[in-house]
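Hi R.,

Here's the input for the zinc ion complex you asked about:
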Amino acid sequence: MFLRVSILIIGFLCTLLTYGQKPKTYTSSEIYQAVQKLNFLGTALYIAAHPDDENTQLISYLSNGVKARTAYLSITRGDGGQNLIGPELRELLGVLRTEELLAARTIDGGEQFFTRANDFGYSKHPDETLTIWNKNEVLSDVIWVIRNFKPDVIINRFDHRSPGTTHGHHTASAMLSMEAFDKANDKKQFSDQLKYTDTWQPQKLFFNTSWWFYGSQEKFEAADKSSMISVDVGTYYPNLGKSNNEIASLARSQHLSQGFGGLTFRGTDQDYLELLRGELGGTKIFDGINTRWTRVKGGEEIEKLLLPIEEHFNFANPAVHIPELLKAYKLIDNLEDDHWRTVKLKQIKKIIAACSGLFMETTTAIAAAVPGTQIQIQASLLNRSEVQMEFSKLTILPNNKEFKPGRTLGNNQLETFTIDYTIPQDSDYSNPYWLNKPSSLGMYEAAVLLRGKARTPAALPTVVTITIQGTPIEFNTAVVYKYAKPDKGERYQPFEILPQVTVNAADKVMVFADQQPKPLSLSISSATNNINATVTLKAPKGWKVTPNKQVAVIPNKGEVKTVTFNVIPSKNESTGKITPVVDINGKRYSKELNTINYQHIPNQSVLLDPSVKVVRSDIEIRGRRIAYVMGAGDAVPESLEQIGYQVDLIDAQNINAEVLENYDAVVIGIRAYNINKTLKFKQHLLFDFVKNGGNLIVQYNTVSRGTKGPLNIAPYLLELSRERVTDENAPVSFIDPKHPILHSPNKITAEDFEGWVQERGLYFADNWSKEFHPILAMSDPGESPKEGSLLVASYGKGYYIYTGLSFFRELPAGVSGAYKLLANMLSIGKQEKMNMNSLNN
Ligand SMILES: [Zn+2]
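And here is the predicted structure with zinc ion in place:
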């Protein structure tokens, strides 16, 4: 009985194909390829730490070349990284990157798994990584995936033997994989999992090495390769009309949020695998492992039916194979081996449907609905062959609602049915399952049976039963939202179940530099008609909100109403959160709706806590007007406005002396010199601005290994490095405690370095001329102090400042010390001028 449950766990591929996507149809060549895969009984699991770590060339080679069941287990969802295509960060970025991985797997033919580990940002050492993650829980998830997916071969992207040479998450992923390989078959390890699955022993464990890990091509050529095998990942597949690396390039280009859209690789290319566990058994990845049907009890007979189909495949009319395929289907359905029965049934069903050109979908004309409401589901079925077929049953799974048309599906006769369906009142909302509960710095929470899964199962899964030549076959599908737009064509998106009402605050963080009240606007969105809602705010102690409630009357579904409250901050410095609650007839809602919408992934709705972080901090500023030159994108400008600055975004192209004259300071956004090619030509104008009394603050820019960073970004010698301090709690000391930047207008103390998030900073300078004054010293545990996080130099009448401190993370997180320090950086040298102005007035 428990084995049936494991089917649910690993059997998510069916829903993957129907999750907001057009039903896939197959060419004869693709069906042939699927038959080859049906006849290969071998499984490979690739393991690394982040979306984009995976070697898509090898994954595609395993899936399309070797024909193995292949999956990538990414320990994290990449939540801690940056986003090159939009505003999503943290949890939302994790959702976006999850979908990018799934888009990549749809192309390279792999499956996708994750653990509950949270990507908390850069980590220098696996020891740190494995303390911030709950090591035992992450190991448990790796073992869970191994016990369910049952790989014969595991391949690590990273080397478990070289801690400290790469991201700590990377080394940790390899270390966890080694440990999981040794423990997955041990009944005493994580024995609670054995209620749902059984133990498993993979046969081989490889490290996917390359010259890169040896430092140079020459060193790698000279290395001992007796325990290595190599594969040509540039193989050409005539059936697909593509080289393996062409497919892999396309897959890799799905990582658009990381800027991995790239050119296509073609031609022969060797990839190397170093054996860490097990026996090589030959020169190929699966040598020594039986990958034929004969590895399964009862498989011999199945092979006798299926091998001839592969050998004499009829490309002109694949439907001729259906009688033999149906015989094999029945034998597979009777296999004692639960694992292979599940895996192979799924594959052969797909082949039977594809051979007969069977098209089936269950769609709605609405994107989302609320629990308890009635929707119309349209079922469309089309048999495009002479094969005898009947549409026997449609089951909508959440409450097993059955629809039994018993309709014959004639050759090329489209049959459509409309079914009224009421969404169960107790339905869960559509939401990434790992975001349903609050997460910690290192871990997400998830119910046992959801662990490992890439995404939440579809809102309305369905089972379509088609009786083919007398054999009833159940196909797993799901209800999807289908529509057309004149400027986009036909579109499929996931159908979602959402709350009746959601509430989004205009700002997620409000910083009060003094006791002035500020307005807080909330957008109330309704998913049904005729809503009469009462909105209240829960405020922390010492804070006040007026009025104490607001009413939002929303006549139409999809309409958004804005209500505004006045937030009166506490007298003294304090931090807390204000939580909006919407009440409709006694039912309370408190969810914020975020939508993620890009061409390369299905639309995502993400429900999060709608609370607003409020910070009351005495922050003084000098100077008012700031010009901000955007780099890779950050929320620093909005944050500066919160504490009273007037910030104008200016395009690098428009920088000239007249424009700059209007400002007290110019702030350069993160990575601006890396991204903006115009900026370096404006450098002399920025220096003139400083010479004339302006302040110029340059935030971090990235540096390639072995270089000194973008050149001439400062009026004096300044070289950047890859040095960073990743421990957000790393002690900070003051090199020159008397420096004005630590005193005016705000006094900076050790307390101002408390409560920082993710890191202290990155890409610190490591060489500078004597004009620069280093202000702060800090280091990660066990390292020597780094002094290049904040450098100040006077130049003419103004100041030039370089900083690698992570203001772009700290300000949006409402870290008051970061506000005070940045206010001082903007204010330096401004004191007298302000006083003179006030005298003149
Ligand atoms: Zn990585």
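One thing worth noting: DSSP finds 20 helices and 43 strands in the chain.

Cheers,
M.
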